[in-house]
Design brief:
227 residues, 23% strand, 6-stranded antiparallel sheet, 3-stranded antiparallel sheet, disordered N terminus, Arc Repressor Mutant, subunit A, 8 helices, alpha+beta, Jelly Rolls
């Protein structure tokens, strides 16, 4: 059965769901911090927290003791981070800032009390959580159901983000054959996909290395995948 595009309601501008008055209340007692690229801005062993991403690009991921990671979400401007923390227990989650980003840290106790008294705030948090579930489905499905461009974009962004944590650079050290195997395609198809990304100024390539020049544009390609 062919894939049928659904209405694109994948992303939620959280503050736009609130009235001016509730927006002001939500941001009371909040703080703004600029994080350099490559920073791990949140760790699960730290105090519970909820954020708004004002600008930049971030990644939420899980890990296991042997160092392996799984990307849970790529986070875009105007999205809420930590909705599950507001309504319940925080998950085991790390948040990596991929490009320099401004985060607004919300006063968690204040926001929880506000959600109890303002139905609009509670509804906005619910909309955010529904979006997070849909985005998680998308990341699971894109690996096998996305087109070549989408699968390559996800694979490169995921690998480069992990490399940034280790060495500070958004780059992928792998042969074209390795990358082709990773997305279940051929080396020739991978070569064409990388050429197109290179011509668009999104990546640069050298033997055995792909340097990500525009992670935001790679993330934008991932967002085009609709389930």
């Amino acid at each position: 059965m062919p894939r049928v595009a659904q209405p694109l309601v994948l992303d939620v501008d959280f503050l736009s769901l609130l009235s001016v008055a509730n927006r002001r209340r939500l941001l009371e007692r909040s703080t703004r911090t600029v994080y350099p690229a490559g920073t791990v801005a949140y760790r699960p062993d730290g105090p519970p927290a909820a954020f708004l991403l004002e600008n930049g690009l971030a990644r939420a991921y899980w890990n296991v003791p042997d160092g392996r990671q799984a990307t849970i979400a790529f986070i875009h401007p105007n999205e809420l981070i930590g909705g599950t923390t507001v309504v319940g227990n925080p998950p085991w989650l790390f948040m990596q800032v991929i490009t320099e980003s401004t985060l607004t840290t919300l006063d968690l106790k204040w926001v929880r009390n506000l959600a109890k008294t303002e139905i609009e705030v509670a509804a906005a948090i619910n909309a955010h959580l529904a979006m997070r579930v849909r985005q998680a489905y998308r990341l699971v499905a894109i690996r096998s159901l996305g087109n070549i461009r989408e699968r390559v974009a996800y694979d490169l962004l995921d690998r480069a983000s992990r490399s940034q944590l280790d060495g500070g650079r958004l780059e992928v050290t792998a042969t074209q054959a390795d990358l082709a195997d990773s997305i279940g395609s051929s080396r020739e198809v991978m070569s064409r996909a990388l050429r197109d990304l290179r011509h668009a100024g999104i990546v640069d390539t050298a033997p055995g290395v792909v340097r990500v020049l525009s992670p935001e544009r790679l993330a934008g390609i991932v967002r085009t995948f609709v389930i």
